[in-house]
Specification:
The protein is mainly beta and 995 residues long. Helix content is 7%, strand content 51%. This is TonB-dependent receptor.
Length: 995
């Protein structure tokens, strides 16, 4: 059977009692692309049958169950409780309640989804059956859709297609997620509701004054209106919402990753001293020669205050000139504006003499790492940021559905949609203004608890007041545009068969550009006297991490200073005499543009078999052809300069465009079958092939070098527009028992065989023939006169004191320790610098398998019930933490579980939800190189309590993350912290009036 009430009617009418409304014929409701037309042309109830509208939590769960039960293939979903009332305030939070679906959180709410271990970039999101563009300045080159952009009030249903379908657009290798919104002709007459909400986010309180933003309580307002003409030929629907939220989060992070990995017997720059060398006696439980270990590059504490405003709206016109034809014109708009302020304190390691203690191998991690700094003249870095971004989504679409006769149905659907992310601040889309007190002595970090404890000796802010050092001002721009034309046809044949076919053309253009204004004067750009002491405000650090184990350690360096970003920025601009350096550039450093033009056609045949055990089957095939063109504006590097002990900024000249192309085509077959083992039992089988397209950064041509190189060389990126999509061969099996009107149990098994995975890899190149001072004539002269090869301070002192004024050598003033400062530029006879270039290739294959268990039970008419699920996912392709070098593994692979308990009567509705996700690999590069990043297991408890004052007015309390969980990410070892984050719970009180 098709999706019956759920997909044909319920996209706007959340639920019909199944005993009151017989299931319509199998038509095209299971096709996401034609869902909106189907709901417009299917009567709200068959002639002569009274429709009983059921709303509420139980009805939502029942409708979701029937969506699953009546679907062809493997489909799950969530249906709204009533008009304008989706179960969760965030769509991603709703999606995580579905078995096999896990979410990534950003600023305390769900943003992106992983399905059955397949990451966000390889899942396709549709809006009313149309492929949606996405843009995100936090992930410029990605394809992952950010559900934080969509308010839930106008959404009436989410459908998650887990098995491959010929009629489903390609790109959803993990799943295709269809978001359905209101269509007026689906629900004749006037329907309307309005809601108001007050939001209190506790995380916004636990912040320094310099980053706190806005009021403690913020408003939300939403409304939906739908009406049809008396003759049912014309309909209009309007939905709108506006939401404000003030929040905060505090992080302790090794933000630049961990240097290494090294073997215990290696003696490279940045490693711990080898046995028999000076300092080796200060190492406790030294890593064995075969152990893998790493050392931290820095430690950063940052406090972030955020304001968010989200605006959503949709306008829909429908016109049915005759009974058989329905046309729909719709416009959807969303805007998500985020303003961020940050203050931080950090210490950077220079890998000089050190003491340390270690865990046991084979992956050893430091419990305590201390760098010896004498005299105390290194920097205690304290920075600030103030930036803002805006993301706008616009979609204009037209649909025409014609039921030619009782057997033939035709449909045309077209849309033009854009997603655009831009800076929303004169200071750019991201920035950092660094200050420092040059009074840091011995510096230690204790990693033995969840919270890393930084200890600093010798700090003296009176002796060494703060001054502005380096700065970074970045502007980013992302725009994605999709123009899509789809045609669909269905022909009922014989008594129980149907032939479906269709054509589509999709044109996707993606542009990602950014500029960077960076001043690499981290050793001091100005002098302390340029800044009145009053602009720096003393703060205590510990209070901002009081929920994380280890933050009460008395050894914590607890005093730091915050400041107002713009106030100090203006002072620095004035003191430097170069105000343009303290604002973003107005031109782009890089500009990457990718265009994908796809054509597709599909054929699908559905038929029922009237055997002893009734069987419904679906055979289909889809052909997809895509051409890729990638054009990139590449900065042309001209030189390398040596500005401090381990900082070698790359200088760039005028950029140039380069263009590369690629193409591919696929034939994707599928087969679905479900068998009625009994009237209340069903078995399912599905085989299908699907593809997931590469990320845009994987496709974009052009070699882009990172701005900052090191002693051992630089890094960069390079895409490959010839990449093929990841292809997956999928097998699904399931048993389902619907033992009650609202109760069922199901057990599913799935397998995916993946090929053409584009794993990250590195190649060593010498782009632009850049010369580095490392190993050059000046460098070698310093070595010949007594400097050790790893002692860059000695080498710089020798060069400045002996070659100042020679080509490429410009000496500055000495620092407080008496060491020379200045710039050394690579010369024509110096060695050519090596760069490690991250690139991509189709060279990986993987297999994953898993189990899904669902149990939903309602306790008769008591009002109590629950819905629960557990997903187990496994792959033999795991990251080997004890192995050095580039590896391929599947990010996002994790077990997950959900439990939702409800109580409901005519006055009260209560829903308690717990979501848990096990630890998972989130990436294979940590900012320093090919190292794993693991997000630790996370569980969140949410609660909502509603009270029906009367049939029209409802008030509701909601609590999100009530147990105030923390987020923690680590590297190869749990003690190898990358990030730990404290935020806070969120409380909401709302009222909704239904007309």
């Amino acid at each position: 059977m098709s999706l019956a009430v759920a997909s044909a009617c319920a996209a706007f009418m959340p639920a019909h009692a199944q005993e009151a409304a017989p299931v319509p014929d199998a038509a095209t409701a299971t096709d996401p692309a034609s869902a909106q037309a189907q709901e417009a042309t299917t009567p709200s109830s068959p002639a002569g049958v009274q429709t009983v509208l059921v709303t509420g939590l139980r009805a939502s769960l029942e409708s979701s169950m029937n969506l699953k039960r009546n679907a062809t293939g493997f489909v799950d979903g969530i249906v709204a409780e009533d008009i304008g009332k989706f179960p969760d305030t965030n769509l991603a939070e709703s999606l995580q309640r579905i078995s096999g679906v896990s979410i990534d959180r950003s600023i305390g709410e769900g943003s992106k989804v992983t399905v059955r271990g397949v990451g966000p970039d390889l899942n396709l999101v549709l809006l009313n059956g149309r492929q949606m563009p996405t843009s995100n300045l936090g992930d410029r080159p990605g394809r992952a859709y950010d559900f934080a952009n969509i308010a839930s009030e106008a959404v009436s249903q989410l459908q998650v297609y887990k098995s491959a379908r010929a009629e489903t657009p390609t790109g959803g290798m993990g799943a295709t997620i269809n978001v359905l919104t209101a269509r007026p002709l689906s629900r004749p007459g006037m329907q309307a509701s309005v809601g108001v909400k007050g939001v209190y986010d506790k995380s916004a309180e636990n912040l320094p004054n310099d980053v706190q933003r806005g009021d403690k309580i913020t408003p939300e307002i939403s409304g939906i209106y739908s009406n049809t003409s008396a003759d049912g030929r014309f309909g209009i629907a309007l939905s709108a919402s506006y939401q404000e939220r003030n929040l905060g989060f505090n992080q302790a992070a090794v933000s630049n990753g961990w240097k290494g990995p090294f073997r215990g017997d290696e003696n490279n720059w940045g490693t711990i001293p080898q046995p028999g060398t000076p300092g080796s006696e200060n190492i406790t439980n030294r890593p064995d020669p075969t152990d893998v270990y790493q050392v931290p590059q820095n430690l950063n504490y940052n406090m972030n205050g955020i304001q968010r405003q989200r605006t959503n709206g949709q306008l829909v016109f429908q016109f049915a000139p005759v009974k058989e034809i329905t046309t729909t014109l719709d416009y959807t708009y969303s805007e998500n504006k985020i303003q961020t302020r940050r203050n931080d304190i950090s210490a950077w390691f220079n890998f000089g003499p050190s003491t340390s203690s270690w865990t046991d191998g084979p992956v050893a991690a430091p419990l305590v790492y201390t760098e010896i700094i004498n005299p105390a003249v290194s920097d205690i870095a304290m920075g600030a940021a103030d930036f803002a971004t805006r993301t706008q989504n616009k979609s204009l679409g037209f649909n025409a559905a014609w039921r030619v006769n009782s057997d033939i149905r035709l449909e045309l659907d077209a849309h033009s949609s854009t997603a655009e992310s831009t800076p929303d601040s004169p200071f750019g889309s991201s920035n950092t203004l660094g200050t420092a007190s040059f009074s840091r002595g011995n510096t230690s970090v204790d990693f033995s608890k969840d919270f890393p404890v930084l200890s600093i000796q010798g700090a003296d802010f009176a002796r060494a007041p703060q001054q502005v050092t380096g700065s970074v001002f970045e502007n980013g721009y992302v725009k994605s545009e999709i123009k899509q034309l789809q045609t669909h046809a269905s022909w009922k044949m014989l008594e129980a068969s149907e032939l479906k076919f269709g054509l589509a053309t999709t044109d996707v253009e993606n542009r990602s550009a950014f500029s960077i204004q960076q001043r690499d004067t981290w050793g001091g750009a100005t002098v302390p006297s340029d800044y009145p002491a009053s602009v720096f405000h003393q703060e205590s650090l510990r209070q901002y991490f009081d929920n994380i184990d280890g933050s009460d350690n008395p050894a914590l360096f607890n005093t730091f200073y915050t400041f107002d970003f713009d106030q100090v920025r203006q002072l620095a601009a004035k003191a430097s005499g170069r105000p343009e350096l303290y604002l973003p550039k107005t031109t782009w450093n890089t500009d990457q543009r990718t265009r994908e033009k796809s054509k597709s056609l599909y054929l699908q045949f559905n038929t029922d078999w009237n055997t002893a055990l009734p069987i419904h089957t679906s055979f289909g095939v889809r052909y997809e052809k895509t051409d890729v063109t990638s054009t990139a504006l590449v900065p042309i590097a001209t030189s390398i300069t040596w500005v401090s002990q381990n900082e070698f900024p790359v200088t760039f000249g005028e950029p140039n465009f380069t263009t590369l192309t690629g193409k591919y085509h696929h034939v994707l077959p599928n087969f679905d079958a479900d068998i009625d083992l009994r009237s209340d039992m069903k078995g399912r089988f599905s085989y299908g092939e699907s593809i997931g397209r590469p990320r845009y950064d994987q496709l974009t041509g052009g070699q882009v070098l990172n701005n900052l190189a090191r002693v051992n060389g630089g890094t960069g990126t390079q895409g490959n527009p010839g990449l093929l999509p990841v292809k997956s061969k999928n097998i699904d099996l399931a048993y389902e028992w619907y033992y009650g009107k609202s109760s069922f149990v199901s057990l599913g098994h799935f397998r995916k065989s993946l090929e053409n995975y584009a794993g990250q890899s590195k190649l060593v190149a010498q782009p632009f023939n850049l010369r580095t001072p490392v190993g050059g004539a000046y460098w070698n002269a310093a070595l010949a006169n007594g400097c050790a090869g790893a002692d860059t301070t000695c080498i710089r002192n020798y060069i400045f004191r002996n070659f100042n004024g020679q080509p490429g050598v410009v000496r500055g003033t000495d620092d407080p320790a008496g060491n020379a400062t200045g710039v050394i530029t690579g010369q024509g006879n110096d060695p050519i610098a090596n760069f490690e270039i991250n690139t991509y290739a189709n060279q990986k294959a993987a297999r994953l398998r898993g189990l899904e268990f669902n149990l939903q039970h309602m306790f008769g008419n008591s009002g109590f019930g629950f819905s629960s699920n557990y997903t187990y996912v496994k792959s033999s392709l795991k990251y080997d933490n004890a192995s050095i070098g580039e590896q391929f593994a599947l990010p996002g692979l994790s077990n997950s579980a959900n439990f939702v308990g409800i109580y409901e009567n005519d006055k009260w509705s209560v829903r308690a939800a717990y979501n848990w996700r096990d630890e998972f690999l989130s990436g294979t590069f940590d900012g320093a190189g090919p190292n794993p990043t693991y997000v630790e297991a996370f569980g969140q408890f949410d609660l909502s309590v509603g009270f029906n004052v009367n049939r029209n007015l409802t008030v509701q309390f909601e609590g999100i993350n009530l147990t105030d969980e923390i987020k923690r990410i680590h590297g190869r070892s749990e003690r190898q912290l990358l990030l730990v984050e404290q935020s806070g719970p969120r409380y909401m009180l709302s009222a909704r009036y239904k007309f």
